[in-house]
Amino acid sequence: MNASQFRGAFTIFNAMHHTEENPWKITSEKNIYDNPWINVTEYQVINPSGNPGIYGKVHFKNMAIGVLPLDDELNTYLVGQFRFPLNQYSWEMPEGGGPQGIDPLESAKRELLEETGLKAAQWTEIQQIHLSNSVSDEWGIIYLARELTQFEPEPEDTEQLIIKKLPFAEAYRMVCNGQITDSMTVAAILKVQLLISENQL
Description:
By secondary structure, this protein is an alpha+beta fold. It folds into 2 domains: 3-60, no CATH class; 62-197, Alpha-Beta Complex (Nucleoside Triphosphate Pyrophosphohydrolase). The chain is 26% helix and 43% strand. It has a 4-stranded mixed beta sheet with strand order 7-4-9-8, with helices on both faces. Strand 8 (118-130) and strand 9 form a beta hairpin. The longest helix is centred in the N-terminal third of the chain and has 15 residues, at 3-17. The mean pLDDT is 91.
């Protein structure tokens, strides 16, 4: 057996005998920062190799909610806004925070109406997603909204939005060429493209 074959055998052996138990040990924790949306905690830990270290975790107090609207002609709607943390403009599907303890579908309906003025008669959950699992516990749910009716948008006072209606195929191209980088939007568009290609819509 050569070195390459040995490494492959070792990987298979490990996969057969791996455990999903938590290898991290927390020895202490300290609250670093808190506001109405996030909390930052610093943990003193023993890492999986047995060495001491620190780990910072950002806890999100709201669930991330995303909605991909799709009309009967397979047009979708994107929302453009300047994202403060990135210091750049971003095209995304309608998104927002859903308070814990509230049905996420109700939050999705609210976000869609606020940002686009749309209401949908048909709702399908298409994806659940961790958005940045190395530093945060942010959890997202993505919905596909169909059978759309147009009303007036109701944006929040912190939002300066541009709404763009476009063919879904164009939104898919924007993902493929890097014009859309928001992780929930990328996941939603790729999932819907898969559903379309498999005739599941």
